[in-house]
Every structure is written in C-alpha cells, then in structure tokens.
C-alpha cells in the first residue's frame, strides 16, 4: 500500500490462505509496517462486506478494536515490535515461530465464533 500524499510505501505484505480461510472468504497477511518498523499479522476479508461482517461477529475478541474497524483489515496484531534486521536468520526464525503461534490462536478463535 502506498501513501497517496507522499508516495511512500507504508506496508510490505504477503497474503496467506488455506482451505479454511478460502471457504470463509478470509486471508491472513504477514505485514511489515514501515512507519512503525514492526511486523504484524492481519486478518482480512475477501471484500469490505466480509470484513465488516467478521468485525461485527468477532466483537469481544482481544485483538479487535471495537471502536472502529481498521481501514484494510478486520484486526491487526503487532507480532514483532522490534525486529533485528542485522540478524536475518534470527529474524526469520522469530517471524516463523510467532506467526505459527498467532495463526493457531486466530484459527481457534474463528472456529469458536462459527
């Protein structure tokens, strides 16, 4: 995503999807937030209507901002707040481990709200 006012790249992201997410019109995104210099995991809907529906459905979930839905996602979780870019191997291990743990929590939560 690019900031239209300044032309700066705000995020670098990768979409991830499995059968469960696809069936429910959802995606996970692994996001590098350039402004905050952190890695995040986002839950996204296939369309704005899907996102809004899940945002309403998941009210009460720890990651959800009940005041307002994020512009690009249902919720956003800071996964790694202070990445060490000087050690790429350790950074990669940290991202994989944190993503695996958080995605399991997200899937468990989604299934509990079905």
Structure at a glance:
The protein is α+β, with helices and mostly antiparallel strands. Helix content is 35%, strand content 25%.
What does this structure look like?
- This protein is α+β, with helices and mostly antiparallel strands and 114 residues long.
- The chain is 35% helix and 25% strand.
- Mean pLDDT is 91; it is low at 1-5.
- The protein has a four-stranded antiparallel β-sheet.
- It starts with 10 loop residues before the first strand and ends with a helix.
- The chain has helices spanning 19-23, 48-57, 88-112; strands spanning 11-16, 26-33, 38-45, 75-80.
- It is globular, with a radius of gyration of 14 Å.
- The longest helix has 25 residues, at 88-112.
- Strand 2 and strand 3 form a beta hairpin.
Instruction: Provide the helix percentage.
Output: 25-40%
Structural class: alpha+beta
**Main β-sheet description:** 4 strands, antiparallel
- In the predicted model, the low-confidence regions spanning at least 5 consecutive residues are 1-5
What is the mean predicted local confidence, pLDDT? 91
* Biggest β-sheet: strands ordered side by side in the sheet: 1-2-3-4
* N-to-C series of helices and strands: EHEEHEH
* Global outline: globular
Gyration radius, in Å: 14 Å
What percent of residues are in strands? 15-25%
N/C terminus separation: 31 Å
Core attributes:
single chain, 114 residues, alpha+beta, four-stranded antiparallel sheet, disordered N terminus
